[in-house]
Design goal:
heterotrimer; B: alpha/beta; D-Maltodextrin-Binding Protein, domain 2; 20 helices; C: MetI-like fold; 15 helices
Chain lengths: 302, 469, 301
């Protein structure tokens, strides 16, 4: 009995602090947010008025928000695809793609370090940095050479047809290095002889990549997919700080989080903003559950 | 990854059973309605010298740290106030992000005492009024002025200052600076090149073509990242063509207010400027970058307000000589004569009704409206304050002089609008759509239809309080 | 001689190398191009940080006529980058330590001790991974504010306090930390712990002296994730810290970028960016081996 008692006491003492902190700082604000979503609270009054589902009805007519949703959806597809493709390619080159066939190309250690640089920078820093890189005239890092070649200037952030791609580009730029490292670790855990054997069987690098590397890394690719998917749904700082008019021009780069922030902190429509947050919440949870379901796939044992 | 977690329905339901526990916690975390902090001490007796009864409570001041900086408050206003009330401790603060910093203070019922609610990130006045967060400043208007007990504060101000500061019949907001809008240029550049300020739109087009042909600089630019600088000119021109009611109807969200003929004529003309005369790269540049380009003689003209000269003081060449000209005659049958300008009080101060030291806050505003404070202010930040005659006899910089002359020449033909402050959503739509108009992606009629649709949507939106002028 | 297996193997290799020739060139080019893409914007920022205002607005690739180190002086003095960085270091040090301590405690119990309610608690934590933080921002402000009214410790953990922010960071890092660490604890062998229990060690001792050291690779990697995540945090401090002297680095950088629009001190902006970037790159390069192995250990195990 004493033993059991000690065990219970131990469980309680270890869980008390984390559960308390979590309930106070995470769960309770979210529950309040769900409540605020059903009010017309404008942020300054102490007495919000209950208005039921009006905020959700209003959302149906909010073209800007749906535009934001389509941008998140596009990012949800493009960010993982592009990032994973580039990262897999480089991970392969840096680990098994060398001339010897089973080792990385020359200098791969240095590359791996440099590739990772963007990942250690804060989003706000990256956003401010690229605002300058993308300047629309000869003082911009990218436009100066383009103009010298007589091609430009390109409105990386000022042309609504281009701005979204600039946002995607920056996100990929920042993400790739991390996934190169992740996939490298995955590759390192694949036994060397598998590559050796394949090579002796006459497999070229291209078939090494598609027939061995990708199938064996499938698990890691799925992890990457979930991370990047959540990143695509959650993106805020890059859009808010970097783009013109916070998600512009003409809402061409806006995302759900930016619309929540805009409605809450610029229009003081806190009730409505919370309703948008609730919708975003269900999108994210939906994505998480869906990807966990889909990822239950046979593992390759080796 | 080891066993990927599988959320079974049963487990989810069990997780949900915990929610009531958290709910109980949440209950004690919702915004608490706090009793107002007033009445804690016995009210201080009022007198002619101390009309609002300032006691010994500290005074918390928040200044928007924008084009005028915040030194004017610490160097001019606060010493003056402190000179009269040495016991009052002044807590001076400044920020560029008024909303982010102060909005939560309102929600919590403990706002500061004086706020300069300005800049791109200012709080929405509409929401503040809707919630009764603004102190009625009518007593300030009826109080004796700081300098002369025989003159009321009301008599120091232009009636438009009072009208624009009035929400729902109460004077809530004090605009401190008289912003004068127009097209800004370098008097030196115009003189050196023999270019003349255009009086008609045809002359404006001709001048732009000449400048373009000269190859010396681009004719025109605007803050491409902030197209509100451009719709300012567009609306002013529409008022010139169709008269003040064009703007009144827009403010009142009247049906078809955006699609009137005057608006159409104006939008077409500015779209033409956008297509032909705008400096390369404009759409991606902000106000400072375009203004700096003008200081570097890369572009001749841009639309802005009278804060411009002070904002650019560090990059302006000594002999640049800022000048401003009004919107030229457009049709020959314009409703308003040449010289009409758009002028609007800016740097908007208010006193929160739930502030701890409301009398101190109002008194601070009264001090700001003294001759000395307003005069020193306009000299320091090279602009025109709303206090009549405060700048008299003081040295004026070229830009401030030009702006003063423009507003004097306009006489009664001064226009303004209020929809931007009333309806933030409509403003954002205007910003987005005007950018599209100027870069040629939106035709003038489509542009106006789009604005009209947004205005109509807003009119139907019961969640947003409507105003009339 | 020719049927010496060693030789034929090396011949095969040589042959393969020839076959792969053009591909090698291509792969080297690809890697080099990406290196340039990554490094050049950063180096360009460093370059701009010693330029004058005029040079920044001039041709992007021109070299500065004179190295203007005073830009850094302004970024440091007027923009308080030093202060903000120190604040970030203080907050992140305490919050990461706290996160790892109570996160690993919770993860351990949830992973190794079956009890009624174990799964609901676990899922309550893990579901937090999918919550968009923007939804909670405003109510969170009030929660923290009300914490300020708690008797005795209130003033230490209310709004505008670093301790308050530390608690919030810990709470918001728990879902991720618990999700990965409990997975990690589940993979550890149980024999050692059981033996220690038989010898009479308490549950607490087993955790701190046996399980925690065994979980080191996982702990290291999650620590790194949390350091990066909390160092980069912008939304939470934006709402919870309003006093300028309490600000963290991300707030300072965003502010200086807004400020550049009014004060036109673009060279100080670049200097501040450099000050924010350089230490991170140096720290990363020094510890890159540990960071890379740590990161991947956690994500893959």
């Amino acid at each position: 009995m004493l033993h059991r008692h000690r065990r219970t006491l131990f469980i309680i003492s270890f869980l008390a602090a984390p559960v308390a902190l979590y309930l106070i700082y995470v769960i309770s604000p979210y529950l309040q947010a769900f409540y605020i979503a059903t009010t017309n609270w404008r942020g300054v009054s102490a007495t919000p008025e209950f208005i039921g589902l009006d905020n959700f009805r209003r959302m149906l007519g909010d073209d800007t928000f749906w535009k934001a949703v389509t941008h998140n959806a596009a990012l949800l597809v493009l960010l993982p695809v592009v990032t994973i493709a580039i990262a897999l390619f480089f991970a392969f080159l840096l680990n098994v793609g060398g001339a010897k066939g089973t080792a990385g190309i020359f200098g791969s250690k240095v590359y791996r370090v440099v590739f990772f640089f963007p990942h250690v920078l804060a989003y706000t820093v990256v956003a401010v940095l690229f605002q300058q890189v993308f300047r629309p005239d000869g003082s911009g890092m990218l436009n100066a050479p383009l103009m010298a070649l007589g091609l430009g200037p390109i409105g990386f952030l000022s042309d609504p047809g281009v701005a979204f791609w600039s946002v995607l580009g920056v996100m990929v730029w920042q993400a790739v290095g991390f996934y190169v490292v992740l996939f490298s670790a995955g590759l390192a855990s694949i036994p060397r002889d598998m590559f050796e054997a394949a090579q002796i069987d006459g497999a070229g690098r291209i078939s090494l990549f598609f027939r061995i590397t990708i199938p064996l890394l499938w698990d890691t690719v799925q992890v990457a997919w979930v991370y990047l998917g959540i990143l695509a749904l959650d993106v805020f700082a890059i859009v808010w700080v970097m783009t013109d008019q916070h998600g512009g021009p003409d809402y061409s780069t806006t995302v759900m989080a930016a619309e929540i922030y805009r409605n809450a902190f610029q229009y003081s429509l806190f009730g409505y903003a919370s309703a948008l947050g609730v919708v975003m919440f269900f999108f994210t949870v939906g994505f998480a559950i869906l990807s966990l379901r889909l990822s239950r796939r046979e593992r390759i044992e080796y | 990854m080891p066993d990927t977690p599988r959320l079974s329905r049963r487990e989810l339901l069990r997780a949900a059973s915990l929610v009531p526990v958290a709910g109980a916690l949440a209950a004690c975390a919702t915004p608490a309605a706090k009793p107002a902090a007033t009445g804690s001490a016995a009210p201080v007796a009022t007198s002619a010298a101390n009309p609002f009864g300032v006691g010994g409570k500290p005074l918390e001041v928040w200044i928007f740290d924008g084009g005028f900086g915040n030194a004017y408050a610490t160097d001019i206003h606060q010493p003056l106030f402190k000179g009269k009330y040495p016991k009052v401790e002044i807590k001076h603060n400044f920020t560029k992000e008024i909303t982010k910093v102060l909005q939560p203070r309102f929600a919590n019922g403990s706002p500061p005492d004086v706020i300069d609610n300005s800049g791109a990130n200012a709080m929405d006045f509409g929401a503040l009024v809707q919630d009764g967060q603004m102190q009625d400043l009518t007593p300030l208007l009826d109080a004796p002025s700081w300098d002369d007990p025989a003159t009321k504060v009301r008599d120091l101000l232009d009636p438009s200052v009072i009208e624009i500061g009035t929400y729902d019949g109460k004077f809530n907001v004090l605009g401190y600076v008289n912003y004068i809008f127009g097209i800004w240029y370098s008097q030196k550049v115009f003189r050196d090149n023999g270019w003349v300020v255009p009086k008609t739109w045809d002359e404006f087009i001709k001048l732009s073509e000449d400048i373009k042909k000269s190859g010396k600089m681009a004719p025109f630019t605007y803050a491409g990242k902030f197209p509100q600088y451009l719709y300012e000119s567009l609306l002013t021109m529409a008022a010139k063509i169709g008269g003040n009611e064009v703007l009144v109807n827009i403010d009142n969200l009247e049906d078809g207010a955006w699609t009137t003929d005057a608006m159409k004529q104006s939008a077409e003309r500015w779209a033409e400027v956008g297509a032909k005369f705008v400096m390369e790269g404009t759409s991606g540049l902000d106000h400072v970058q375009t203004q700096t380009a003008q200081n570097k003689y890369k572009v001749a003209m841009l639309p802005s307000g009278s804060w411009l000269e002070n904002e650019q003081k560090d990059t302006t060449p000594a002999d640049f000589e800022y000048g401003v000209f009004p919107i030229p005659d457009v049709t020959g049958s314009d409703k308003l004569p040449y010289g009409m300008v758009h002028a609007q009080p800016g740097e908007t101060f208010f006193v929160p009704s739930k502030a701890a030291n409301v009398p101190g806050g109002i008194e601070y505003l009264r001090a700001m409206l003294s001759k000395k404070a307003a005069g020193d202010f306009s000299e320091l930040v090279r602009t025109v304050s709303v206090v009549k005659g405060a700048g008299d006899g003081r040295p004026l910089s070229p830009g401030a002089k030009s702006a003063t002359e423009a507003v004097a020449a306009a006489g009664a033909n001064v226009v303004y609008w209020r929809w931007e402050r009333w309806y933030a959503q409509l403003k954002d739509e205007g910003i987005a759509a005007t950018g599209e108009l100027m870069t040629g992606r939106l035709a003038p009629d489509k542009y106006l239809e789009r604005m009209q649709k947004k205005a109509d949507d807003l009119k139907k939106d019961t969640a947003i309080k409507k105003y009339k002028r | 001689m020719s049927d010496n297996p060693m030789l034929s193997r090396s011949a095969a290799r040589r042959e393969r190398r020839l076959r792969l020739g053009p591909l090698s060139v291509l792969s080297h080019t690809a890697v080099l191009v990406w290196t340039v893409l990554v490094a050049v914007p950063i180096l360009w920022t460093f370059l701009a940080s010693v330029k004058s205002e005029d040079e920044i607005f001039g041709d992007a690739w021109s070299l500065p006529a004179k190295l203007r180190w005073d830009n850094f002086g302004r970024a440091w003095e007027q923009a308080h980058i030093g202060q903000y960085m120190l604040n970030s270091v203080i907050v992140v040090t305490f919050s990461v330590f706290g996160t790892m301590l109570i996160g690993s405690m919770a993860a351990y119990v949830l992973a190794r001790y079956p009890f009624r309610g174990n799964r609901p608690v676990y899922f309550l934590f893990v579901s937090g991974l999918a919550f968009p933080v923007y939804l909670a921002l405003t109510p969170l402000f009030f929660v923290v504010q009300n914490m300020g009214n708690v008797p005795l410790i209130g003033p230490l953990i209310g709004l505008n306090t670093h301790a308050g922010l530390v608690l919030v960071y810990i709470a918001y890092s728990l879902p991720f930390t618990i999700f990965f660490l409990s997975a990690f604890f589940r993979t550890l062998p149980t024999a050692v712990a059981e033996a220690a229990m038989v010898d009479g060690a308490s549950h607490t001792r087993v955790f701190f002296q046996i399980m925690l050291p065994m979980a080191r690779p996982g702990i290291v990697s999650i620590t790194i994730f949390n350091v990066l995540g909390q160092w980069n945090q912008y939304q939470l401090p934006l709402v919870l810290l309003q006093d300028r002297d309490k600000w963290v680095l991300t707030q300072g950088i965003a502010d200086i970028s807004t400020a550049a629009g009014y004060d036109q001190d673009w060279s100080a902006l670049f200097a501040a960016l450099t000050l924010a970037i350089l230490p991170m790159l140096v720290v990363y390069t020094v510890f890159q081996r540990q960071i890379q192995s740590g990161l991947t250990a956690g994500a893959l195990k």
